[in-house]
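Assemble and predict.
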Amino acid sequence: MEKIKMKDERNVLEVENLKLYYKVSQGLVKAVDDVTFFLRKGETLGLVGESGCGKTTTGTALMNMPTPPGYIAGGKIILDGENIVPLKETEIRKRIRWEKISMVFQGAMNCLTPVYTIGKLMTETLQEHRDMEKEEAQKVMIKYLNYVGLSEDILRRYPHELSGGMKQRVVIATGLFLEPKVIICDEPTTALDVVVQAQIINLLKELKEKLDLSFIFITHDLATEAEVSDRIQVMYGGRIMEIGTNQQIYGEQGAMHPYTRRLLEATPRLHEEVEELAFIPGTPPDLLRPPEGCKFHERCDVAMDKCKTQEPELKEVEDDHYVACWRCQ
Amino acid sequence: MGKSDYIFKVENLQKWFPTRRTMKEFFAGEQRHVKAVDGVSFKIKRGEIFGLVGESGCGKTTTGKLLMKLLDPTGGKIEFDEQDVTYLEKEELEKYRQDVQMIFQDPYASMNPRFKLRDALEEPLIIHKVGKNRTERNVRIRKALNEVRLQPPEEFMSRFPHMLSGGQRQRGATARSLILNPKMIVADEPVSMIDLSTRAEILHMMKTVQRELGLTYLYITHDLSTARYFTDKIAVMYLGRIVEMGEPDAVIDESRHPYTKALITAVCEPKAGKVNRIKEVPIKGEVPSAENVPKGCRFHPRCPYAVAECWEKEEPELVDIGGGHFVACRRHEKLKKENI
């Protein structure tokens, strides 16, 4: 019985038994329930799943900024050798958030203050963290704008003058400023058109090479994930169902967990003719009253009796490939 | 009756929105326009699913709204069931709205949160004075809910929208559009807000309903992959005009317009071995503003194969290149010879 291998030198981020719960009047919502995973230096880890499976919640937990009424109920987040869960908020602000780990929020590109110029928006982030003269800040900003493929005259423009793709680039540049080690991108391409989407994906890949960054890429779309992520982590009902390399998930042998398989079948492919698109009947579980046993058993077509009573744990089935399913063990 | 094969005939449809004038323009008596739809012609066959595909800002939703008569066109002609419906009076419009219904993109916003599903479905019946009393209306509501497989209907009738999942809401919205027995349904991105796992289920349901009731759909989407699966015919729009039109297989596998080709290469596919490659995106930049439409072929500034004639001569028309496959590109033959 082998669990996830930790304490690897290559890891920049290690998450152990992380729990993030929301306390609501009806009870406790276990949005992220006891997840363990790691992120290696210079790789992109994809987080996929349906809405409400805990992808974004995991992202905010890693920044140690759960949205109220959520709170971190336990576990460790070891970033660059330091557990950031017990740290005080002031300390996290000073040393961790944006400095070591930053996040590009979903729809952030539509939340740029409309009355500020891009220059002012960006300077604010920079001056909050660094004791910098205006001119020096300007230099840093231009450097990062060039990284994301924008010219410096953007600084004098207002958000409404920019297109969606340009705004997304501005948001990514702002996330890069303080040279963090890990960047979490939450659905950065979902609201964009396909052509622009491809451009942003290329940009992320280039940045990863150039700046030696590690990414966590959150999306619901397995097709995008195939183009971006080195390793894929599939979540369902607050739990990790499967972790595998790009080849293990999308390759010939294919994913092992029934949920991942069904999700892949439901993903439309443009170049293959299909008579009938597959879908997963039913809806994701109500996390206020989660089902007993495996969270997916109600929608699973290969569920056994054991699945209804006992929850499977993530186990390594081959190198780097972890599956939480009784059928695969 | 000998009705024609086509339920909709759209000819040279235009919708220009005036922009706010500057002081200078005001005194000079000038007016600029955002040309959202700028000369669109197509025909929709009875019982067909017609897909309108394009990026945001290409005018696909405006075209849908024009066909729904939610907007009045600036120019052109719309024919529905062999009647000119370009401009309608109030009473005619009411009749027209019974025949043509719409499903909106966001099932969370398109339903009144204070209405139970029953009331939401009853409202169109009351407005159009269908059904004498509550019992009669209930029969129709039950029938519509059965058609979209919200079963048992009695249980769903007493539910509020927040008690439904995204997929169930979109089923409810479909039931609402079916309740007046329309001939035609305009579906504007009906599945883009729905989770991938249930998206196919909704499309499947819509297709079943369409076949059972002999409906015609206009399916508006940005997603080529679902359009290929769902539609009988696809029209690709760019900046207010159709650039390519034909059967889905022809448009996707043998696309002839450089824009369609670029769209197709940009689509992500769930396959291994693509992580370490930088994808070739043949076209640069983003869609220009519909306020300043480029002269000549409107795609030429972004087209990798544009030559002088593309911007010097007037705009290329949609031409039939065989088998009902239409392309609006001056160089499509040449590009085919060069294997591009």
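The domain at 11-41+49-100+230-328 of chain A is CATH 3.40.50.300 (Rossmann fold).
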